[in-house]
């Protein structure tokens, strides 16, 4: 097992931690850990992070009850990022969404698909009302 | 669609980007983007990152051929992290591993499971060679 000291924490003493649902494989959030919160996470088998805004250790779910039970913690080839597999007791996001990543950049592509579906629906509806000769 | 300008890049002009396999949901890597590499990624639909060590834009797979076709890009509730769903042409890691997260902290637990499996295998093998009366 790697020693925590071998991981590369940044100049603020932090390392990014990706949190993934162990069962669904959905990415829930990205947060940061310092050495102490990583040690706590390894010891308690629940996620503890370091809040950059509040400048303190933060036990995920302490107030909301939405704790994250840790199944495993992976570290990457450079030792400067963590991947934490968890079983969450509730939504990861403060907005109530299961994942913090609930909005996408390429939404227009999704809308485009919806436009095609809508066009298809209108076409079928029209053919039902006004059958075209030779059309199945 | 959110404007890139609304995202929160850090004091170095970077934002962390989690890369996930669109089909298997496996986490492949964590890398960083600056505005320019994000724009390139959105435009080319292939991943472009900013190399913190080489201090330059980096087209993933340019030399190895292991490019990552982008399916979608999500941003989190705070607008300070990205999740990129890709279809990779090959391993994401320079070590040849599919994912950069190929080592775990709680490896002992995995080994423990393997020990149990090994014990079970030995037990079954032994019972086959030396049947025990009253044992199914």
User: Quick one: biggest sheet of chain A?
Assistant: 4 strands, mixed
The rough form of chain A would be described as elongated
Largest interface: A-B, 35 and 36 residues
Identify the strand order in the major beta sheet of chain A.
2-1-6-5
Task: Please tell me how large the radius of gyration of chain A is.
Answer: 23 Å
User: What sequence of helices (H) and strands (E) makes up the elements of chain A?
Assistant: EEHEEEEEH
Task: Kindly report the oligomeric state of this protein.
Answer: homodimer
For the terminal residues of chain A, how far apart are their CA atoms? 65 Å
The pLDDT mean of chain A sits at: 88
Query: How large is the share of residues in beta strands of chain A?
Result: 25-35%
In the CATH hierarchy, what is the superfamily of the largest domain in chain A?
Phosphoribosyl-AMP cyclohydrolase
CATH topology of the largest domain in chain A: Ubiquitin-like (UB roll)
Give a quick precis of the structure:
2 copies of one chain form a homodimer. Chain A has 2 helices and 7 strands, in the order ββαβββββα. By secondary structure, chain A is of the alpha+beta class.
Description:
2 copies of one chain form a homodimer. Chain A has 136 residues and is α+β, with helices and mostly antiparallel strands. Chain A has 2 domains: 4-88, Phosphoribosyl-AMP cyclohydrolase (Ubiquitin-like (UB roll)), CATH 3.10.20; 104-136. The first copy, chain A, has helices spanning 35-44, 107-129, and strands at 15-21, 27-33, 48-51, 56-59, 68-75, 82-88, 103-104. Chain A has a 4-stranded mixed β-sheet with strand order 2-1-6-5, with helices on one face. In chain A, a hairpin with a 4-residue loop joins β3 and β4 (56-59). Chain A is elongated and about 75 Å long. The model of chain A is unreliable at 108-112 (pLDDT under 50). The A-B interface holds A 1-2, 16, 18, 20, 25-27, 29-30, 42, 70, 72-78, 81, 83, 93-95, 97, 100-109 and B 1-2, 16, 18, 20, 25-27, 29-30, 42, 70, 72-78, 81, 83, 93-95, 97, 100-110. β7 of chain A pairs antiparallel with β5 (68-75) of chain B.
């Amino acid at each position: 097992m790697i020693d925590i000291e071998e991981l590369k924490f940044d100049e603020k003493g932090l390392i990014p931690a990706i949190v993934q649902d162990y069962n669904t494989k959905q990415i829930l959030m990205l947060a940061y850990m310092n050495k102490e919160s990583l040690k706590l996470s390894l010891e308690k088998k629940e996620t503890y992070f370091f809040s950059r805004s509040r400048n303190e250790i933060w036990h995920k779910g302490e107030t909301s009850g939405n704790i994250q039970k840790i199944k495993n913690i992976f570290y990457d080839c450079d030792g400067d990022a963590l991947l934490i597999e968890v079983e969450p007791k509730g939504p990861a996001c403060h907005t109530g969404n299961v994942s913090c990543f609930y909005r996408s950049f390429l939404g227009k592509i999704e809308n485009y698909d919806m436009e095609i579906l809508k066009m298809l629906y209108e076409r079928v509806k029209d053919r039902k009302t006004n059958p075209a000769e030779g059309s199945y």
